[in-house]
Amino acid sequence: MDIKSYLAESKKLIDGCLERLLPPEDEAPATIHKAMRYSVFAGGKRVRPILVLASGESMGGDREALLHLGAAVEMMHTYSLIHDDLPALDNDDLRRGNPTCHKVFGEAMAILAGDSLMTRCYQVLAELPKIQDSVKVRIVSEIAAATGTINGMIGGQVVDLESEGMPINSEILEYIHHSKTGALLTACVRCGALAAGANPEELQRLSDFGSKIGLVFQIVDDILDITSSSEMLGKTAGKDEKVKKATYPALYGIEASRKMALDLASSALKSIDNFGEGANALRSLAQFIVSRTA
Q1: pTM to 2 decimals?
Q2: CATH assignment of 3-291, given 1.10.3720.10, 1.10.600.10, 1.20.120.920, 2.30.110.10?
């Protein structure tokens, strides 16, 4: 599979769906809708919604439903980025190569833009087309858990903040990475499969794939923060080391971290080795995630 073409085509479809699902800029109150759209359309690879799409289509899922689901997840992800960049958290001026939301619209509007994207996410999930209500409820529960305080994104962010400048160990590090980043990435794979009607065995295999590839994503992020530039990353490079964040390179070194990422990616691929050609997009995404340079 030509992964570059697949990513470009999928991103175009997802962006079109986001364009339709987000309130227009001139919808009152206009300022909040401009702020929401500014951050959503500031760039980004759309890895999370593309994982939704690839997972669901590997099970023969409906593309329209999967695009709506992926767009909702991207809203949730963008909310987390807006809030993560705020002065009270990571205090960053650059995101996706552009000034962060609070730098353009002010802190108050940035907080509200993040809140609005989260609530819009849940509205879109509740209105997913061609999906049974019982499945919608399960998907909402999955996304809420993945972004919550117990083994979810917010819980991971809390421990990440509390661990800055502190001695770290493998247990804390793995908790932060699995929770802050990995939980939502795993939920993307699981929810795409749920929307497509995956059976319990298929769902378990895809969950294992998602969990491992989610950790790979964050390990690579840790490495790139050291080895890449702000221009390449679209965000401020070198911040993890500066504030002494808990990262894989900080604990294990860069080369050992690279090997861990490669080993995890290989193990993730074994989880879906019996899925046939329908899962080729997922396989290519795993290779892309472990080898990405930005």
Answers
A1: 0.93
A2: 1.10.600.10
